[in-house]
Automatic annotation (TrEMBL):
The active site is at 166 (proton donor), 347 (nucleophile). Signal peptide: none annotated. SUPFAM superfamilies: (Trans)glycosidases. Its EC number is 3.2.1.21. This is Beta-glucosidase. InterPro entries: GH (IPR017853), GH_1_N_CS (IPR033132), Glyco_hydro_1 (IPR001360), Glyco_hydro_1_beta-glucosidase (IPR017736).
Length: 439
């Protein structure tokens, strides 16, 4: 690709998550998760689809690792399914679950692909959810124990670790507005779940390091928040604090934004030293900016969320704004200064209506344009002095896209969800060539 240049040691990767691709939800001793329960609730998922089979990665992992090897990626960011390793969320590990991840990690290492391990991508063991889930501080303690088990078993092959993926999504979409598992509608009363996830992150960092993990970071989804009009600045700040700073500030600065502390559990300040345990890298998942306006009458939140207009859209209803990635990264550098460790873009991608043509080819030029534009925006941020070390495309495979089911296709590889046949798209070959030219 003619375009921005990246350092020779820049890390090129792809990402996926266990619940979205593994399937085999009742096999190998795996326990039930909050997302299994949510999917089984009529009306929660488009078309009442489930992830029971998904991409069947549990059985087809060797084929998928071969696809990654064909890409030439340096790294694969996977997630371990907590219910597959600890079916009840506590106690002894499940030998069959450990054995599956042993096979997967061994296959990745044999292919020369570095595993980047995420411990939690939203699939809470159902027994813990029944006991309150992330509303309950005990879940954070159980998570620290789970992190120790995973590190003791896998740290010899996993040099980079991410304890929790996108805690904002679990707190806001899962507990505040109920669009994701577990489907609670608590609004600002959901904020204790943010604190407990932050605490779980800190305890996991400590447990991972104690068990010999090399590099430990985080992965938060971030996007700039724009005021709609000149009188909406405070609303935009309130939203930025809720979706961005409530999760970044305590990890990097050891404090929360003042606006929301009244909604946190009593004694939260005592946990801040653990939450702020130093990390080695900061993962940024970027998809889109947001826009906010002053709250309308009757809105209990300090802002109204409004659409970002005037940009092309993905089929997942995300505005395509590559320049907002530059804005975000430069803004984080300016806000956090020396407290911000090196950054990895741990997710960036898009969904379009990708179909296999009569000639067997998947022409997804819009995805190539999306990725090219975002890599240019990333290079602009690096030229402005932001320390970025790697970039991971979301996702290697089309997969189960949460409440929207299988309609949004994010993959570099097309998956026929009836036959499970994998077909590399044009973007797969483009990314392969990009990686080869960057070395």
């Amino acid at each position: 690709m003619a375009g921005p240049q990246f350092p020779a040691d820049f890390l090129w990767g792809v990402s996926a998550s266990a619940f979205q691709i593994e399937g085999a939800v009742a096999e190998g001793g795996r326990g039930r998760s909050s997302w299994d329960t949510f999917c089984a609730t009529p009306g929660k998922i488009a078309g009442d689809e489930t992830a029971d089979v998904a991409c069947d990665h549990y059985h087809r992992y060797a084929e998928d690792v071969a696809l990654m090897a064909g890409l030439g990626v340096d790294a694969y960011r996977l997630s371990f399914a907590w219910p597959r390793i600890q079916p009840d969320g506590s106690g002894k590990p499940n030998p069959e679950g450990i054995a599956f991840y042993d096979r997967l990690l061994d296959a990745l290492c044999a292919a020369g692909i570095t595993p980047v391990g995420t411990l939690y991508h939203w699939d809470t063991p159902q027994p813990l959810e029944d006991a309150g889930g992330w509303r309950n501080r005990e879940t954070a303690l159980r998570f620290g124990e789970y992190a120790r088990i995973a590190a003791e078993r896998f740290a010899d092959r996993v040099p980079m670790w991410i304890p929790i993926n996108e805690p904002m999504v679990t707190s806001i979409y899962g507990y505040a507005i109920g669009q994701y598992a577990p489907g609670e509608f608590l609004l600002l009363d959901a904020l204790p779940t943010a604190h407990h996830q932050n605490l779980a992150h800190g305890l996991a960092v400590q447990a991972l390091r104690a068990a010999g993990a090399d590099q430990v970071g985080t992965a938060n989804n971030h996007g700039p928040v724009w005021p709609v009009g000149p009188d909406d600045g405070d609303a935009a700040s309130a939203m930025d604090e809720l979706i961005n700073r409530l999760f970044a500030d305590p990890v990097l600065l050891g404090r929360y934004p003042d606006r929301y502390t009244e909604h946190l559990p009593a004694g939260f300040a005592d946990d801040l030293p653990a939450i702020a345990t130093p990390i080695d890298f900061y993962g940024v998942n970027y998809y889109e900016p947001q826009a906010a306006a002053s709250p309308s009458p009757g809105n209990p939140l300090p802002f109204d969320l409004v659409p970002v207009e005037g940009y092309p859209m993905t089929t997942n209803d995300s505005p395509i704004v590559p320049g907002a990635l530059t804005e975000l990264l430069v803004g984080m550098r300016d806000r956090y200064g020396d407290a911000l460790p090196p950054i990895h873009i741990t997710e960036n991608g898009c969904s379009f209506d990708d179909e296999v043509g009569p000639d067997g080819r998947v022409r997804d030029g819009a995805r190539i344009e999306f990725l090219e534009a975002h890599l240019r925006a990333l290079a602009d941020a690096m030229a402005a002095g932001v320390d970025v070390r790697g970039y991971f495309v979301w996702s290697i495979l089309d997969n189960f896209e949460w409440s929207k089911g299988y309609a949004p296709r994010f993959g570099l590889v097309h998956v026929d969800f009836k036959t499970l046949q994998r077909t590399p798209k044009d973007s797969y070959r483009w990314y392969r060539d990009l990686i080869a030219s960057a070395r």
